[in-house]
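Re: weekly structure request thread

Next one in the queue (292 aa):
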Amino acid sequence: MVFRDGAFLAGGGVDYNVSSRDTTINAIIKTGATVAQVTCAFPHGAAPGDVVTISGCAEPEYNGNFTISSIISPTVFEIPVVVTAPASCSQAEISVPVSYSPPFVNDEIVLNVATTLGEDITIMTFQRIIVAPSSGEANTASNLGVGVGLFSTKAGIDLRFKSITGGDGILITDVGSGTVSISADALQTFEARNGINTSVHLLSTTESYIGVRDTSSVVTIDVSTVPAGTSGSGRRLVVQDESGGAGTNNIQIAHGGALFGGVPSPFLINVDFGSVTIVYDGNDWHIVSKTF
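Done, posted below.
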């Protein structure tokens, strides 16, 4: 700041101009995945948390407003950058202007009004970079709760978020008006088949079809414990005698304390190549079809 006999001068070409400035950057080099080191030609006078505006780089990742993360030396500071930023500025852009709040150390001040003998000219300089981002505060973002966070990184004024993609049976759709729809993909309605050769089998998380391939002894399909995440109303299960021996050694479908179509368990498949389809309502299994 410039004062004349105690009165603050406006600057910016009204009362005085800054005719020369030592704001040259000699190099910007990436020193980590998301960290770049800025080397100034003269002492920068900055501190961690100050905001600096860099422009004139051929690489767009190094242009914009950056919050200084650390001070390495009087002429070197570090800024956060994106992972995809180039290793350094190109040689043709080695001198990059930095926006400071004028006047700064080593600046030349030229008064635009005549002075007289005895006037007191006072120049006060803050040893910090104090220019704020032109588009608002230097904000950041964070993820709340215990779920999967969507916020990724902040590069300059750019807040970067992760994309959501659909998994098996899940469809992600941008329906417009700021709304994203997450739904089941109707094309993915297929049966998770499991062929078994054991005398006792416990219902798993994904199966909707159990093919019994060995009836050399009685076979028990135990659906007493419906796996977590699959116990809601509507779980469907098909059990089929694929061995052709259920007439001799029955297939028992057991669920302690539950009913099958009003009949206490176990429900028997006692005909060769017989099958049954049952649906769970959250408490009981209901027979919706059978082939005997």
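The domain at 193-291 is CATH 2.60.120.640 (Jelly Rolls). The two ends are 96 Å apart (CA to CA).
Next request, please.
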